[in-house]
Amino acid sequence: MLSALLAEPDAPRYGLDLMRLTGLPSGTLYPVLHRLRSAAWLAADWEDVDPVAAGRPARRYYRLTGEGIRAARLALAEVRALAPAERLDRGGVGPAGARAW
User: Fold this and answer.
1) Does residue 63 fall inside a structural domain?
2) What are the pLDDT digits (tens) for 64-90?
3) Does residue 101 belong to any structural domain of this protein?
4) Which of 40, 43, 80, 101 has the fewest Cβ atoms surrounding its Cβ within 10 A?
């Protein structure tokens, strides 16, 4: 989720858009969005649209805050730094290799 939001940090994203980008189902996505908002990493605003004229409900758009951008970059850097070591600890080999447990 953080990678998807950081790909274009200024671009507002709505739920279905994020589901498509991340492959996460709504039951996973929305609790994560809620936690990120609670941590002040995300801002959320409702679209100003007439649902009848648009032919769909209003969308809630999410965008990383300045703090969210900094924290997300740091969190992803930490995960990426740990990933190779954890793979080796489990007996796996790198991406070009065979096993991924």
Assistant:
1) yes
2) 999 999 999 999 999 988 877 655 555
3) no
4) 101
